[in-house]
Design goal:
80% helix, 0% strand, 17 helices
Length: 424
């Protein structure tokens, strides 16, 4: 169906903006490096023109019902870029980055016309970001070794090949029906992915800032996975106890933010009872984060002596098995005790997953099976139990120095949680 004129102008406009965005980045990077000397093969004007050309050729191919207008335009653009690259290479050493980005701009324009606006926007913006990270990506590439390459390949195998092949349904009678192989292996992938995220951030932005970002970003997915990853890596990276502890506390603090968001989405009326006690625990943990960041100044001993590649499949699989066992125990406790043992069930369930118990309590309150105060207390108790579990992970797998820094944070979170439970 032919799009109306307003939609047509909108699609071409998006293509123009995305092309301009990429062209401005190329222009800025080129002028910054060359200080205005010479000519750029494609810049702030050429890129949007190429994107509009991609949209126009897609329009022509669609209207004619033939692919040749689009194919011929791609060939023409490719030939022009190849000729321009040839002449520039005669004068100076030059790469193919701008030429390849120009082809991306062309296909971005075509995607915009075909209605794939989100994909086109992601492609255009992602390309511009990648072009802007030239220094960081080159620095990262220079620091890689064979161990990093092999570890990345193994991570790709367990993520892209193994994970999709696993069953996504449970087997066995209750309480074993809560164990889904796909979900358990997903936790293994998550742990490995968080480790890789922290490793790359450390390589790119430095150890202290990289570790802190790992805690924040990893806490959005799984604070328990962050805990296992950071505690395990602390044995191989001496002198980073304070940044590692800060990453853990940040991840644990983000857990309470997730709780508030989940309750707000599932059962907004319950939020009026939950938000204040959860916020109190969050602020207490955040205060200890500020203490870790500001009280102990960094010095030359803070730099790591060794930062090894974090991918270790053995510990990740061990955690996946532990996760499955706790899921079974949590299911059994909830089924056995029922509503009368909701607090005990929240303790057991909180050991495995705070998100699950939070959503369960929100649903029970929504159905009228649970009072708001009981649900709020159960959520706070589950979060405290999960914090104790993560403190145990640090005690078992982390270094002695890391334990000394983390234990006060565990005490603060559990203590404040106990206090607000009685005040709810």
């Amino acid at each position: 169906m032919e799009p109306n004129r307003l939609i047509l102008f909108y699609r071409f406009g998006v293509a123009l903006v995305l092309g301009l965005f990429m062209g401005l980045q190329r222009e800025y990077a080129y002028r910054g490096n060359r200080e205005g000397d010479g000519e750029l093969i494609a810049g702030a004007r050429t890129f949007p023109i190429i994107a509009l050309l991609g949209a126009a050729s897609a329009l022509a191919a669609t209207e004619l019902g033939e692919a040749w207008p689009f194919a011929m335009t791609v060939i023409a653009v490719g030939v022009l870029l190849a000729v321009g690259h040839f002449w520039q290479s005669q004068e100076r050493d030059t790469g193919l980055t701008t030429e390849m980005a120009a082809l991306v701009a062309f296909f971005t324009g075509a995607l915009c016309y075909w209605g794939y606006l989100r994909l086109g926007a992601a492609l255009g913006v992602g390309t511009a970001v990648l072009l802007s990270l030239k220094v960081q990506t080159h620095s990262l590439a220079r620091t890689l070794d064979s161990e990093d390459v092999y570890a990345t390949l193994k991570f790709a195998v367990i993520t892209v090949i193994v994970l999709p092949l696993l069953p996504q349904q449970s087997y066995g009678p209750p309480p074993f029906d809560v164990v889904v192989p796909y979900n358990v292996w997903l936790m293994v992938v998550l742990i490995s992915g968080i480790s890789f995220l922290g490793y790359v951030l450390i390589k790119v932005v430095g150890p202290h800032r990289g570790i802190g970002l790992t805690g924040i970003l990893g806490g959005l997915a799984s604070s328990t996975a962050v805990t296992l990853s950071v505690a395990e890596r602390s044995r191989d990276s001496r002198g980073l106890e304070r940044p590692f502890a800060l990453a853990l506390m940040l991840a644990w603090a983000i857990m309470f933010v997730r709780v508030i968001v989940e309750v707000a989405v599932i059962n907004p009326p319950l939020l009026t009872t939950v938000w204040l006690p959860v916020l109190a625990v969050f602020l207490a943990s955040l205060a200890y984060c500020g203490y870790l960041y500001g009280v102990h100044p960094s010095d030359e001993h803070d730099e790591p002596q060794t930062v090894r590649n974090p991918f270790r499949l053995g510990p990740a699989i061990t955690f996946g098995l532990l996760y499955a066992v706790i899921l079974v125990l949590s299911s059994w406790a909830q089924a056995y005790f029922g509503d009368a043992g909701v607090y005990l069930s929240s303790v057991v369930a909180g050991l495995a997953d705070v998100d699950a118990i939070t959503l369960s309590m929100a649903r029970l309150h929504e159905k009228g099976d649970l009072e708001a105060r009981t649900a709020a207390r159960a959520i706070v108790i589950a979060a405290a139990a999960n914090t104790v579990l993560k403190g145990g992970i640090v005690a078992l797998t982390g270094t002695r120095s890391l334990r000394r820094v983390v234990v006060p944070g565990v005490v603060i979170i559990v203590g404040v949680s106990a206090g607000v439970v009685f005040l709810i």
